[in-house]
Amino acid sequence: MRYDHHQREFEETFSPQHTVTKLSASGLVYKHYGKDIIKAHYPLLSTDHLELAYKKMYKSFMEAIDAIDTGVEVCEKPAYKDATGLSARVARLNSRWNEDPATTPSQDERFEVASALCGQDFLNVLEPLVESSIPAYQYVEQAVVERHLVDASGEIIKLSSGGMPWKSHLYDLERKHSVEPLIKFVLYTDETGMWRVQAVSEEHAGFTNRLSLPEAWRGVRDADLESIAGIPGCTFCHKAGFIGGNINYEGALSMAKSALATQN
Fold it and tell me: For residues 156 and 39, what is the distance between their CA atoms, to the nearest angstrom?
């Protein structure tokens, strides 16, 4: 029960799927007690959903803490430094070298502030995961299974409800169902009822798409976009090519199909 990761021979990771990031003390505690913590907040969670929440909380929250602690860079040459993460915010609570200890909070007081900060961050990730993301899992899985009903290519899926969180599930479901070729576009409605066609990004690379919307469409709107694309009802295409819109489902599907045709 000594959760120390500093031994020379220590090589433990969260699971065989996490081969790069070794556990820190935080990860060790989570690996042993994570399910108990989640269950304490959500006692009615089913066994399957508890397991899913446990794995996704590590991937979406805990792994970054382990990686920063054990010296794993997010990429080979980071383009910028992010000082907004939990580890950085906790570090800023430490005393500065030139502070007067007689007039500033003690280390114990600082620890209590840091503990509350970490706990709240944990819950801020856990709550939407359990209350929104996990309930969406079955619907995203249904969309993946029924993808050939949307288009014969199997590279487009249609979600049954707008605003449904799908990104965190899609890659796992592709592996689960041995999806090949991989899904390129997701169709769904936004809060206004407009149909969106969104490109699926490469896994672990949020700004690199598997296939973007055509270059000629990007940054163009409404009638101009209809004319260029040759598809009625187009409303916009983002200048980065990762998302576009159409007033109806048929138009959004046509946009996705047209984009698919550009990869051949």
Answer: 36
Q: Region 108-132: what's the mean pLDDT?
A: 97
Any bridge partners for residue 13, and if so which? 22
- Looking at 84, 109, 135, the residue that finishes a domain is 135
Measured CA to CA, the distance from residue 94 to residue 224 in angstroms comes to 56
The answer to whether position 5 is within a domain reads: no
Q: Please, what's the largest Cα pairwise distance for the chain?
A: 72
The DSSP bridge partners found for residue 221 are: 236
* 138 CB-near residues (< 8 Å, 6+ apart): none
Q: Which pLDDT score, from 0 to 100, does residue 98 have?
A: 95
pLDDT at 264: 64
**Please, which pLDDT band fits residue 205 given cuts at 50, 70 and 90?**
confident
Q: How many domains does the chain have?
A: 2
For residue 200, being part of any structural domain is answered with: yes
1 domain-assigned: no
| DSSP tag of 226 | H
Contacts of 149 (CB under 8 A, 6+ apart): none
Taking residues 212-223, report their average pLDDT.
97
- Asked if residue 15 belongs to a domain, the reply is no
Residue pair 179/229 in contact by the 8 Å Cβ criterion: no
2 burial class (0-12, 13-18, 19+ CB within 10 angstroms)?
Answer: exposed
One-letter identity of residue 200: V
Token representation of residue 193 = 């009822």
Q: The domain containing residue 254 runs over which residues? A: 146-261
Residues 215 and 160 in one domain: yes
The pLDDT tens digits for 71-117 are 999 888 888 888 999 999 999 999 999 999 999 999 999 999 999 99
Q: Which of 106, 135, 164 is the last residue of a domain?
A: 135
